[in-house]
Amino acid sequence: MDISMILSKSKPHLKPYEELYKHLHQNPGLSLQEHLAAETATKHLRILDGFDVRTKIGGTGLVGILSNGPGKTVLLRADIDALPVEELTNLPYGSTKREVDVEDGIEKAVMHACGHDMHIACMLAAASTLHTAREHWKGTLVVLFQPNEERAAGARAMIDDGLYDPKRHACPSPDVVLGQHVMPQAAGTVGTRVGHFASAADSFRVTVYGRGGHASQPHVTIDPVVLAAHIIVRLQTIVSREVNPREGAVITVGSVQSGMTENIISSEAVIKINVRTVTPETRDKLLAAIKRIVKAECDASGSPKEPLFEATSSFPFTINDINVTNCVASAFTEHFGEKHDPQAPPLGGSEDFSILATEAPNRIGGKGVPYTYWNLGGTDPALVQKAKVENNSGLVPHNHSAYFAPVIQPTMRTGMEAMVVGALSYLT
């Protein structure tokens, strides 16, 4: 029986999953605080007879393991955390939640502004489908729900907590690792790509130092705000003047903080920087250039001490394996037809998904198994078409926007089917 036939015979009614999605969207949890999402996934999997559910891995992470005879082991991954964003979608199930972030003790608005709630719903529907279809496949299915993806720490935390350690959580090492992400593309579509698919991302906090004083006496101070301003402007020349124009790279200063009031020159400024690159060589070049410029501007301003660099997060490159990607892409083309793009453009964002594969024990006694990661459209196709006709990409809310919310259908159906088709391309 082919995969599409298995799907048609085994997939559940999606209305309960739509309600589950709305509940998750309305009740998001920040990174490290994804308690409702974890409890929801755990409860659902334990209802499915045969799933071995193991919880509290690297925080709120969990796996469900379904052994179904000899064969390959396939790991499917969904991330579960939300973002500190105040939702502006006006959806009837929009989030109004606020919670204190355990990272810094500050109360924040919380929103699933990156679609991880959709990932959870699609994964649970896929788990139910594959559970129902057990007579049509052999092997071992692992469904993994990962916390703290937004801060690039969840996959590493699950590995460090013994995800694959036989003496800890003893998750069977996979032959392949598969994942997906909902993106601002037409709902009902999926896109695969061999090779580079997501950039590396490095974030850090830079503190530069001045000499504080009265706003009326600038000549006896060293103003860190002016110093920070020079740094911010000069950083933008790295990409425009030091990086090959044919290669993608982004440097973003997302936060600048200094002082508490207008009539006092403060003694320090904090700059938060995010860097995106697509090759290791450019990554090294940008990070070195940032340090060079920051130090030079501090010297030029007469800063009384060296700047302080503190790393806050680091995402690896996502580079899809050619064989795994082609296998999954072939199955997608057969099932989705023209709705599948096998030459999808790389993602603009970054992911820690690959760590679950690169740190997995392999069959020859080392580390690293192949993986592939694809995109899933989540935007009303009519809106996507209008944006194209008007040449106005700003019409389509992107991930991390206060207006980002996937249309529930056909996004959910497509995401569930993509997970099932991807898994069955190895399990049948």
TrEMBL record:
KW Manganese (keyword) present: yes
Cofactor descriptive note: The Mn(2+) ion enhances activity.
Keywords: Manganese, Metal-binding
GO molecular function annotations of the record: hydrolase activity; metal ion binding
Record field: transmembrane: none
Domain of life: Eukaryota
Domain Peptidase M20 dimerisation: 203-298
SUPFAM superfamilies on file: Bacterial exopeptidase dimerisation domain (SSF55031), Zn-dependent exopeptidases (SSF53187)
Keyword Cell membrane applies: no
Cofactors demanded by this protein: Mn(2+)
Pfam families named in the record: M20_dimer (PF07687), Peptidase_M20 (PF01546)
Amino-acid positions noted as binding Mn(2+) in the UniProt annotation, renumbered to this chain: C114, H116, E150, H181
UniProt record similarity statement: Belongs to the peptidase M20A family.
The protein's name in its UniProt record: Peptidase M20 dimerisation domain-containing protein
Organism: Amylocarpus encephaloides
